[in-house]
Design a protein that fits this description.
With about 190 residues, the chain is of the alpha/beta class. The protein is built from 3 helices and 10 strands, in the order αβββββαββββαβ. About 30% of the residues are buried.
Amino acid sequence: MSQTLFTRRAIMAGGTAALFTPSILPAETDDPIGVRRNITSFASQNWQDHFDTLGKAAIVADTTSRALHFWHGDGTDYRVYPTSVPMTEELTKRGYTKIVRKKEGPDWTPTASMMERFPDYKYMPPGPDNPLGTHAMYLDWPAYIIHGTHDTRKIGRRSSDGCIGLYNEKIAELFALCPIGTQVRII
């Protein structure tokens, strides 16, 4: 009987150890340069490395670590958000821009290049099927937006046609923090 009890204990201990084993394995990657899809892979950013001043506010969207960094204009608030990023390098625009318009409950019209690749795409009014989610902040580059998404599987992945996507609750938070004129750098 003690042999059976020992075996049950060994099985229980082995099963418990197996539950923790995945945490010591490397994170799965879907990127040729090995970027991990979890919060521990966010690269630290300092606004001084990107802007001369904070201005009204500042955003750095890091497409490599798939994180958006926000600084309030007075320097009292710094936040980091996980994002989705463009599917390919060809769709990724990098450089300096700014927020020129904000819209709660945005509608969506596919671009001409999207229509070439996906002829079934069509205009979508605000709502649960809209790919822009609940909020959108338009940049001064045509067709580039920082927006939400109803499809939470996209966050942390290469899944957009050029835009930076956030969870809906996070874009709502960022939307409230960012005034028109917020400077943005996409790296």
